[in-house]
Fold this protein.
Amino acid sequence: MKSPEFSTWSSTSAVTKGGSFLGLDSTSASLRMAAFVAGAGELAKVRDIVDRRRRRAAVTTAVEATVAVEPTPAWKRGLDCLVIGLFFPLWFPLAVVIAGWIKIVSPGPVFYRQARIGRGGRVFNILKFRSMKVDAPTSSHEQHLEQLIKTNAPMAKLDGQADPRIIPGGRCLRAIGLDELPQLLNILMGHMSLVGPRPSTPNEFTFFTEAQKGRVGVLPGLTGYWQVSGKNKLTFEQMISLDLQYIARMNFWLDVAIMLATVPAMLLQYAESRATLKSVK
């Protein structure tokens, strides 16, 4: 399937004005006391946690107020369950092997959870296989994404660069997309579909225009129109445009076509990631 052409918070004291802690009136007493005892080094972490909670609540409220939610067709849920069931003998043993590998090479949990914006603005925790060391900072990824969005540059990942945060084998998982395999559970729980727009983070959603918010009117997907039409070679605006086109055209055979195109797209992405990594060594 060819891609269409397009026109296209510093350390601070524990007590602030008004007697509120960090200026966050809704922060729990336990969080505030823990940060106070731990010292300034932990204040930024607490601030970040509360910032994410506030942003999540604000985004959800904003989305629910402005987005028309599309009903999920019965055929879509049926297709998701059918495909997941048919390929269970393939994906389940693979998932067990990956989980075992992660436990061997890196201490910590097998899964990584991250807040994402779902259908109608509902925030849910997306599941991934953990490909980074525990407590690895993610601010560089957020800053990188923000820069790409602001400049409308191709959505190239940082994965092609040597990154000490990634566990052994983690780069391969990310390049092929196998770190996303646990999202089959998100699909079975009704948070996602096999095909649909990729769920954005709350931070990413703040960059959406009113028109682009229509992207969350349907269930987000594990794969989608954008992923099989160029993915990281496309800009943020092109990604949103493709997702809106998918929503307008959504039908059974389009979902089937996107599913069939996903495996070749994954293999091509892996080959390109390997080539990029060799070029920077």
About this structure: Residues 131 and 174 are 7 Å apart (CA to CA). DSSP finds ten helices and four strands in the chain.
